[in-house]
Amino acid sequence: MSDSRIVSCGLLTLALALPSLATAGQHGRASVDSVIPEGPLSAHSGSPADWPEPLYDDAIFSQVMVDRLEYRDSAGAPNAWLWDAQGWVGNDTQRFWWKSEGEGPINGGSPESSNLELLYSRIISPFWNLQAGVRQNFNPDPDRRFAVIGLQGLAPLMLETDTALYVSDDGDVSMGAEFEYDMLLTQRWVLQPRMEVSASLQDVPEYGLRQGLNSSEVGLRLRYELMREISPYIGVSHERDHDHDESTTALVVGLRAWY
């Protein structure tokens, strides 16, 4: 097995093991099942069916989250910068979302890749939202547009999950998924394993994509919350381009902020 595969497998194993480590120290706490009365549960709220339904708030709220704004010092590849941001406006049940990602070389000027998604989101369970909309690529293929349908929410063990199915204007189908988990080491130090994958359901030779897994990334970031809204971080990220059999490991320094 090559060194890159060993590093990739090691980081992936660590990322998947951390959630179980985070829940290992719950001695003395009551389980959720022990405090919820027996009987049928509401499909909408998850509370006992004979409890009053929660009151949905129709007030309009909004949030902007810059999840990653970082510098990447890569081994064997040009150093790069990256952004990963999203935001929403709406009420408890319906929201308008936007999401944008991009990256480029430090000395190269313009981004090598960037995109923007505009989505309608509706809550379908206490922890999950169904999202649908459009995606526009700006780099490197500005002529590619996609219809998007996806799920975003919290999986068991508080695993933040963002998945999407894309259908291009040429009819090509692809998928993407991101998973993040926040381990609170203290009230301010947070360790976050992260994994991201993308795949195509068919070959798309004009864009250099093969059927199957196209790219993957595993990372581990340690952030310090100066305040809840502003958190600088450091970490390591390992990316693999499965179509071209290339991989890159980078040390990262960045800022996480929300408003």
What do you see in this structure?
- Pfam families: CopB.
- InterPro entries: Autotransporte_beta_dom_sf, Cu-R_B_prcur.
- It is a single chain.
- This protein is mainly beta and 259 residues long.
- Helices cover 9% and strands 55% of the residues.
- It has helices at 3-22, 32-35; strands at residues 61-74, 80-90, 94-105, 113-125, 128-139, 145-155, 159-168, 173-180, 183-184, 189-200, 212-224, 230-241, 246-258.
- The longest helix is centred in the first third of the chain and has 20 residues, at 3-22.
The number of strands is 13
Major β-sheet profile: 12 strands, antiparallel, barrel
**What series of H and E elements makes up the topology?**
HHEEEEEEEEEEEEE
Helix/strand/pairing category: mainly beta
- Report how far apart the termini are: 45 Å
Helix content: under 10%
Rounded mean pLDDT is 86
Q: Kindly report the spatial arrangement of strands forming the biggest sheet.
A: 1-2-3-4-5-6-7-8-10-11-12-13
Low-confidence stretches: 14-26
Give the C-alpha Rg: 20 Å
The amount of beta strand, in percent, is over 45%
**Total DSSP helices:** 2
Shape: globular
InterPro entries: Autotransporte_beta_dom_sf (IPR036709), Cu-R_B_prcur (IPR007939)
GO cellular component, one term: cell outer membrane
GO molecular function: copper ion binding
Protein name: Copper resistance protein B
Compose a concise summary of this entry.
It contains two helices and 13 strands, in the order H-H-E-E-E-E-E-E-E-E-E-E-E-E-E. With 259 residues, the protein is mostly beta strands.
